[in-house]
Amino acid sequence: MKTIAVISDTHGMLRTSAENALQGVDAIIHAGDVGSAEVLRVLKEIAPVYAVRGNMDRGKWAWVLPPVEAMEIGGVFFYVLHDIATLDLDPSGANMDVVVYGHSHKPDMHEKDGVLYLNPGSAGPRRFTLPISMAEIVLDDALEKPELKVRFINLEE
Q: How far from the centroid of its chain's Cα atoms is residue 122's Cα?
């Protein structure tokens, strides 16, 4: 079993509730608009981090972040980008299992052509009346085809 935290749109703010929810995870995926090198530093102290650059990530610290990233964790293939409108490949054709994105601040999960699309929502400052959230993926990598269980985590403090 592996637990992967999925977070986005922190905008330089790492809430205590988010830090608490991240404890014990095997990996963290950040879908952009990190907001500061400090947020990345704290996340890296918790678990390995896969992060992409969002439209609000500016400055020298942000240029080390790629605009997209593909990775494999526990036999599951992830494609991470900030804004789903900029998706430039066919995830199903590229054998991706999960597409992680942010930008809209709206939590969302749906499946299309056998690919799970996941937006964890925003973990940073509140925007309008949208919830403050992140997501967690628990994957059973002991199976031939890993099984995913996803849940959203409310970060209201």
A: 10
